[in-house]
Description:
Blueprint: H1 13-25, H2 29-42, H3 47-59, H4 63-76, H5 81-93, H6 97-110, H7 115-160, H8 169-197, H9 206-219, H10 229-237
Helix pairs in contact: 1-2, 2-3, 3-4, 3-5, 4-5, 5-6, 6-7, 7-8
Amino acid sequence: MDESKKEPQTLSVEELKNKGNECVKDGKFIEAVLHYTHAIKMDPSNYVLYSNRSFAFLKLDQHYLSLQDANETVKLQPQWAKGYFRRAEVEAASGLYDEAIVSYTIALKLDPQNQKLIESIKNITDTQKQKIQSNQNTIWICTCLGFIVGIAVVILDYCCTTNPTLGHPFSMVAFSIALAGLGWSIGKAVTLMNTWGAGKSLQPPEDLVGSDNANKETAQPEKKPKYSKAQARQRFKQGRL
């Protein structure tokens, strides 16, 4: 039999996993995802494959898919610290620092001697503190700018106009405080927008949402015509209901 006509040998799960690992080392994350996906189809209960694919998705900034695989890893093997570590890494990359700290802590309970987990918790805690401090600084800067603008307007109004609108000292102070309050509101709004933006990268891709909506539309039951009570009673008598 001609060897050229032989069918290509099918790779085993372990071989596919190793190929995926090699692609990750070479930075070929899309190829790694393909190898891991092929292996998962052959062995759907292999939690290591989901963990590895989660890492590859994370490197591709596919946070939603990465989190799905991390959660599947935890589901298949809840006593494996690395599954929670994978989930924490995705949450941290998405700006969900509180959730990431919880996942890191669970992983550390399962693997108390893991120095990488200890370092990760320290880093994410420091990052969270820096974010809080940055938000506070933004609010104070906006407040001060508002107050400075208020004072500048008061001075210009007093010096450059014949009949100042803000002639009374009380109105001058009140106006400056009002602009400081406006600055505080703007700074607060900016920090809230940053907070609300955390976790947005975990939303499912539009193509997945679109396919789900299409399935729902096709699955909708056929609407039955509505009848009045008299019509329904008549149809019942005729045995048509």
